[in-house]
Every structure is written in C-alpha cells, then in structure tokens.
Amino acid sequence: MFDRIMVVDDQEADQMLAKYAIRAYSPAIETIFAYDGVEALEVLAGLEHAPDVIFLDINMPRMNGFEFLDIYSTGSEEAPVVVMLTSSDQEKDRSKCAEYDNVTGYEIKPISVEVLQKLDEKLSS
User: Fold this and answer.
1) What does the domain layout of the chain look like in residue ranges?
2) Which superfamily does CATH assign the domain made up of 4-124 to?
C-alpha cells in the first residue's frame, strides 16, 4: 500500500480526477501535486521523505516529464517508482519511457482506482 503519491500534471481537471481516484482507493494516502517538472523538483527537494509513487505527465510547460526524469533519475534504490501519464498512446513515448530505470508503468489518463490497484499489486509481488 502507498503512503504518499505525487501527481505531476499541468491540467487541473486531471489533478482533480487523480485526487478522487486516490481518495477512493485509500483515503489514508497523502497526495502531493505539482503543475510541471520544475515545481515537482522544488516540492521533492523540500520533502523529508520521498513519495512512494510519482504519476508523471509527459507534456507540460516549462519542464516536461522526460526533462524531469533526466534530472531526477538518481539510480537510488529509494527513488520513487514513476508511472508516466499521457493523453495519447504514442509508441515513441513508450519507447523513451523504457530508457528510464525507475519508470515502471505507462498509463493513459486519467488515473483510476484500477490503475492504482494494478500498480499496488505489481509492487507488492
């Protein structure tokens, strides 16, 4: 089970849908939001404990998901699992995601209870 999830997405509607799905899955999960990669790095730098999972949009202003990963991918065993989020299913994006060790999933928006269950089962096994 996750204790803390971060959602990095520039669309308020997608953030709201994520918030509802996470709350429906487990009201005990702390949810942190950022609107782009720049804000996500700032928020993460200020946290004492990293989130268990980061749901990361690909296309965002200022710093997109891949630019965020280029900076944040540390190779640390304690680095959060990253699940990429997108509104379209492009093979070039899937291929690029596979280049990052801490990216464990690729999901079409919005985040759902089913996506959270699948991820929780995958990480628990």
Assistant:
1) 4-124
2) Response regulator (3.40.50.2300)
DSSP-assigned beta bridge partners for residue 86: 108
Q: For residue range 28-53, what is the model confidence (pLDDT) as tens digits?
A: 999 999 999 999 999 999 998 889 99
The tens digit of pLDDT for each residue in 85-115 reads 888 778 888 888 888 888 988 999 999 999 9
Give, in order, the Cα–Cα distances in Å from 111 to each of 19, 60, 76: 9, 17, 26
- d(CA 124, CA 110) in angstroms, rounded, equals 23
- Round to whole Å and give the CA distance between 55 and 5: 8
Residue type, 91: E
Whole-model pTM: value is: 0.93
Tell me the helices (H) and strands (E) count for the chain, helix number first.
5, 5
Neighbouring C-beta atoms of residue 24, cutoff 10 Å? 11
Nearest 5°: phi and psi at 96? -65, -40
